[in-house]
Design a protein that fits this description.
Elements (H helix, E strand, L loop, with lengths): L4 E4 L9 H10 L5 E6 L11 H10 L5 E6 L4 H9 L4 E4 L7 H10 L3 E6 L17 E5 L14 H15 L4 E5 L7 H6 L4 E4 L1 H4 L11 H10 L3
Parallel strand pairs: 1-8, 2-3, 3-4, 4-5, 5-6, 6-7, 7-8
Helix pairs in contact: 3-4
The structure holds D-xylitol-5-phosphate and zinc ion (ZN).
The site of D-xylitol-5-phosphate has 21 residues, from strand 2, strand 8 and helix 7.
Length: 227
């Protein structure tokens, strides 16, 4: 298994001071920044686009920015996020007309690519794509909103994907997104995940307002994980 990665989702951050929020959470030990892009079409919510990713890079953020596209169509926005400084880009296979082409756009730019599966999306999309992926992301809530509860059947699905990744022996990250809390992250890791997105559990747990305000919650998450 790969070393555990914690990727706070800025969806639950304070957008009025986003640069400071990102600096603080990285200061407290976040590995990646998870960047949720919603288009009010593929999902019933509207968030942020490439301009905000560029702004974070210009602000001085050097940590990996993990862009999760909940949009359709996907290809034009992939191009824009490549220019905006994304590190990895994941998208939902059913939102792309040509999955392999969309993955190739990401790979050709030297970024990490991944496919995202909603709770009821079958895994057959992996049949001819798994070997080309850097990340498989399983949604443990229906996409569109932060603060929802973890769907328990994700644990079985994680174990299924873990087996498929181990069978081909490639360093593909198995990421989980939605309802991840201090209380359930250990169980989620045991099911096979190595990369953990958490939004509300981190950004709603600020301890005061200083640069160390996410230290306690990040330490609590880290303490639950075995490396
Ligand atoms: C949901 C997003 C998630 C979300 C997770 O569509 O993809 O990244 O922000 O939020 P929590 O951790 O609050 O469930
Ligand atoms: Zn996400």
């Amino acid at each position: 298994m790969l070393n555990p990665v914690i990727a706070p989702s800025i969806l639950s951050a304070n957008f009025a001071c986003l640069g400071d929020e990102v600096d603080s959470v990285i200061h407290s030990g976040a590995d990646w920044i998870h960047f949720d892009v919603m288009d009010n079409h593929y999902v019933p919510n509207l968030t942020i686009g490439p301009l905000v990713c560029t702004a974070l890079r210009n602000h001085g953020v050097t940590a990996p920015i993990d862009v999760h596209l909940m949009v359709t169509p996907v290809d034009a926005l992939i191009e824009e996020f490549i220019k905006a400084g994304a590190t990895s880009i994941t998208f939902h296979p059913e939102a792309s007309q040509h999955i392999d082409r969309s993955l190739q756009i990401v790979r050709d730019a030297g970024l990490q690519c991944g496919l995202v599966f909603n709770p009821a999306t079958p895994l057959h999309y992996l049949d001819y794509a798994l070997e080309t992926l850097d990340i498989v992301l399983l949604m443990s809530v229906n996409p569109g909103f932060g603060g929802q509860s973890f769907i328990p059947s994700t644990l079985t699905k994680l174990a299924d994907v873990r087996k498929r990744i181990d069978a081909i022996g490639k360093d593909i990250r198995l990421q989980v997104d939605g309802g991840v809390k201090v209380q359930n992250i250990a169980q989620i890791q045991q099911a096979g995940a190595d990369t953990f997105v958490a939004g509300s559990a981190i950004f709603n747990a600020a301890d005061g307002s200083g640069a160390n305000r996410y230290d306690s919650v990040m330490s609590a998450f880290r303490a639950e994980l075995s490396s």
